[in-house]
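Case 620 in the screening queue. Each case pairs one protein sequence with one candidate compound; here the compound is alpha-L-arabinofuranose. For every case the pipeline is the same: read the inputs, emit a complex structure as tokens, and attach any notable structural observations.

Predict complex for case 620.
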Amino acid sequence: ALLFVNTSQGRHIPETLFGIFFEEINHAGAGGLWAELVSNRGFEAGGQNTPSYIDPWSTIGNESFVTVSTDLSSCFERNKVALRMEVLCDSQGSNTCPMGGVGVYNPGFWGMNINKGKKYKVVFYVRSSGPIDLTVSLTNSNGLLTLATAEVIASASDVSNWTKVETVFEAKGSSPNARLQLTTSRKGVIWFDQVSAMPLDTYKGHGFRNELFQMIADIKPRFLRFPGGCFVEGERLRNAFRWKASIGPWEERPGHFGDVWMYWTDDGLGYFEFLQLAEDLGTLPIWVFNNGISHTDEVVTSQILPFVQEALDGIEFARGDPNSTWGSVRAAMGHPEPFDLRYVAIGNEDCGKRNYQGNYLKFYDAIKRAYPDIGIISNCDGSSSPLNHPADFYDYHTYTSASSLFSLAHKFDQTSRKGPKAFVSEYAVTGKDAGTGSLLAALAEAGFLIGLEKNSDIVEMASYAPLFVNTNDRRWNPDAIVFDSSRAYGTPSYWVQTYFKETSGATLLNATLQSNYSSSIIASAIAWKNSEDEKEYIKIKVVNFGSSAVTLKISVDGLDKSIALSGKTKIVLTSDNVMDENSFKEPTKVNPKPDLLEDVDKEMEVNLSPHSFTSFDLLK
Ligand code: AHR
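Case 620 output:
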């Protein structure tokens, strides 16, 4: 096979081509990127009927010593449920409390990760009928080993009304399966609400779990689409993500049950935190909002105006002046500077729904009138025929087999060059080709992304989906990053994305492939400038999707000097078996590995392993 690269001809690739899509799915946020350790911190997950279940909270001590229930006595208006704990035993007397006391514990999201020497901030609200003598502790999974502990002693008058207790403690031991305990050996009735435990060590103190943040930062995403997906729509509208319920002091957020992915979230990772996440990643936020349509119910267009106002208010919250109605709420949350919100998507996957077009136009007109510069994304696919409504971009989603995704590299070759541009906001290989993150899937995705690079005159943005999975709650498979309370690894699909981190804003070079294997090989070449060393590089990427090794002759034209080896010159993603995967045991079994590249020049012959993705990094 022959690859001709002409460095004298090129086209600018959009600055935003490759980004990420974060959805609250698979406990990606709650119990994932959002570092809150307590699950169901406000006891709201069981609903407003009392008594309600308080899962995953459990009682320490049997019912002759303690009874636990809920009532609606919280001091927080939007989340009235509080925990009521009646302690029947005492430190002495006929009903003496068992050793260690009685109380409640929270195991977090399948165990809390506590590390020796690290600090944790525990906050809770308490009220009591008498004096309190509480032990707050982080322990191992069965409560027998204490990792950190603090005493909270208060007189009856101090806690007769709801009182906030805040304590920071340093762990004296480690466990990836720890739990938070609130215990006492003093008789009386105590109410608890809004119990939070956060590691102090989060990204910039902004609440993002460091190593998960780092994994997404490492792929240098140019945009962050959030917060879903189906999560935005809801199975029923009443359970959709609504931004206004997710802002303000965390204690006052009602939380909600995401009825598509079937779990409760306290909404600690709310609209503000998503915007903060985008800013911290140095990327552009793309807000997907609910357009009055869920999976099963819809607001008719004649009644959609309140939803339109909600979207306008959300934009004002993000980028309005700190003196504006909603900009001031953002400022009060500690961010007087506007966030750089330039794009919004009107709904998710709703194009075919009865009220979509009607609702869409109401949103579109109102947003364009108030914010003419905002890029608006339609759910209707304009890749094969023109849209019948105005839009700046259209969503394109694809989940399919490996061979069909590899062929979809040419999906946009025939698309009209006029009209709104494509936002491939969700793509992935799914089904049996994918395993739980196979090399095969990743290679098909690499081919697809090369196709998008080549069509980046009309494809403006693209993101893999889903980004994260907590291995304890795999609602969607496969995913790019797999984690539990303390560990994380990238699937081969994640590693493929690292090959494209230089692409956005680079120059697409003319690269022509001549080959008998053209149905199984695809290649592209870009020129990009490294801001760290100010040098210009050429990156040639080739996917060999077939099962035979291929010798590829690369001819680089248009350079007046010899090209040179750069640091790691040839990087290969491959493995012995095309269905190989990474795992907690072997997290880097299938990841990019540097390989020797001899004979670097304007003309060179390279060997492409079967089922491989290779990049050649040359210094211009
Ligand atoms: O990425 C998982 C889901 O797939 C998204 O929530 C939805 O948009 C799509 O159907």
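Case 620 observations:
- The chain has three domains: 2-13+506-619, 20-35+202-207+214-487, 58-199.
- The chain has a mean pLDDT of 96.
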